[in-house]
Amino acid sequence: MLSRDRTERLVFGLITAATLLTVAPIILVVGYILVLGLPAINWEFLSAMPNSGMRAGGIWPAIVGTLYLTLGTAVIAVPLGVAAAIYLAEYAADNGFTRAIRIAIINLAGIPSVVYGLFGLGLFVLFLQLGTSIAAGCLTLAIMTLPVIISTTEVALRAVPQSFRLVSLSLGGTKWQTIWRVVLPQALPGILTGVILGLERAAGETAPILFTAAAFFLPQLPDSALDPTMALPYHLFVIATQVPGMPIHIQYGTALVLLVFVLSMNALATIIRSRARARRQW
User: Fold this and answer.
1) Does a structural domain hold residue 274?
2) Cα–Cα dist 115/65, whole Å
3) What confidence tens digit (pLDDT) does each residue in 144-172 have?
């Protein structure tokens, strides 16, 4: 039999190997994108309109469109998702109905994005007659993002110690005052994690915006929420699969910009989350 020290070293070695096997492919992929994409990155590429069949020029409309879609999704999904999580965690009774709702939310989080795209096409584009537009894309992405935000926010709220609520109520605070001033600030790091996970998925999805919002090429930026828009994921899909003779550095340059966009969201959320954790009292 192995001694306790040898067993501990063996387990530690296995965990370290598993970590390296997980991290190494990610590093290789990011490094590969950097090597092939950096030659394309310059001011014209980031700020100009595409031209010559998208083989030259820049990707500015796709960057702006991705920003519009992400911000629109956040405006719709974050308030609704957090409000629904507050109801489930703080107000709803623990019965068969609420348990069924939680199971449905978990199942909705696993539905393929193309299904959400078809749903958005039928409801927002055709039935509500929003057409292929930023509004239809944001609503579709918001529905896709809601399950992640609701489930993670509810977990974060339930993780706040019950004693915090009892102290606030004993001091004369109302139920809502306790939630707003005590529970939500303490649960903020977990809430931000769920919000960023949902928005990162929305920013990188192609199928939902393919059916509801994205255009192949637009010579100008959208003027309103009812206009279609270009977007980085769809733009990358088009130039990688449907434009013959596309220079490889433009494809990987677009992928690099999308990667930086998503990682910047993650970095901003990490900073805010770290500051919120530093102020947390448990």
Assistant:
1) yes
2) 22
3) 999 999 999 999 999 998 988 998 888 88
Cβ burial, residue 212 (10 Å; 0-12/13-18/19+): buried
Question: Residue 168 is part of a domain; what is its CATH number?
Answer: 1.10.3720.10
pLDDT tens per residue across span 201-232: 888 888 899 999 988 888 788 888 999 999 99
Structural domain contains residue 6: no
54 vs 61, 67, 249, CA distance in Å? 12, 20, 13
Domain assignment of residue 168, yes or no: yes
Range of the domain at 232: 59-279
* CA-to-CA dists, residue 127 to 2, 119, 121, 131, 134, angstroms: 67, 11, 8, 9, 16
For 111-136, give one letter per residue: b (16+ CB within 10 A) or e.
Answer: eebeebbbbbbebbbeeeebebbbbb
Provide the CB-side half-sphere exposure for 263 (13 A, CA).
Answer: 7
How many folded domains does the chain comprise? 1
Model confidence, pTM: 0.89
Backbone angles phi, psi at 103, to 5 degrees: -65, -40
Number of other residues whose CB lies within 10 A of the CB of residue 208: 33
